[in-house]
Amino acid sequence: MKVGIAYSNTRDGFDSGKAAADDAIRTGSIDKPDLAMAFCSGKLDHKEFLRGIQDKIGNTPVIGGSAIGIITNNNLSYDGFPSGVAIFQLDKIKYQIASIGGIDKDANTAGYNLIRKISTTQEDKLMLMFYDSIKIPAFPISPPVINPSSPLIDGIRSILQADLPIIGAGLIGDYEFSKTQQFCGFNVLEQ
């Protein structure tokens, strides 16, 4: 397996995604990208950022989404328009990507429906999950409403083998608790 990681802090989403993907390919000596993990500031145009990444990696799925800041071995930033891309050449490692909407309506049902989209086996080693933390963005007269992770995980666990670890994060794109967005393979989706 090879991994390349890169950082950008450019206002233009397309340029940011393209530059970070190009640097990740170069630093990781990636010959064939199999998967990308990308995160960017909530202030950045997520669709353009994804388009910039895809311009460099073609038909390779991208997962991740909104982030307040980016930390790499060489960069730490919460200011401006920080973004980061990790590109993986997986060789023999297998993975599946699934996404489901409706976490803001019923997180338990969303978790149940999500795990039903994945074919699980005894050979599975890990589940990596990202979800939109923000159910309802903050407004000047009201605080944000957060999507809880427990019902989502309970819905997943209702089907998933009990000993498979689930890791990941709830995504937050800025300090104002604005809406969040996710990269779900080849699309930018919410909730």
| Span of the ends, CA to CA | 32 Å
Number of strands: 12
Multimerization status: single chain
Q: Main sheet: which strands, in order across?
A: 1-6-2-3-11-12
Strand count, sense and barrel status of the largest sheet are: 6 strands, mixed
The succession of helices and strands, N to C, reads EHEHEEEEHEEEHEEE
How much helix is in the residues? 10-25%
Q: What is the radius of gyration?
A: 17 Å
Structure description:
The chain is built from 4 helices and 12 strands. Strands 1-6-2-3-11-12 form a 6-stranded mixed β-sheet, covered by helices on one side. A two-stranded antiparallel ribbon has the order 4-5. The chain has a two-stranded parallel sheet with strand order 7-10. 37% of the residues are buried. The chain is globular, with a radius of gyration of 17 Å. The protein has helices spanning 13-28, 46-57, 107-116, 149-157; strands at residues 2-9, 35-40, 62-66, 70-71, 76-77, 82-89, 127-132, 134-136, 145-146, 166-171, 182-185, 188-189. The longest helix has 16 residues, at 13-28. The chain is α+β, with helices and mostly antiparallel strands and 191 residues long. Strand 11 (182-185) and strand 12 (188-189) form a beta hairpin.
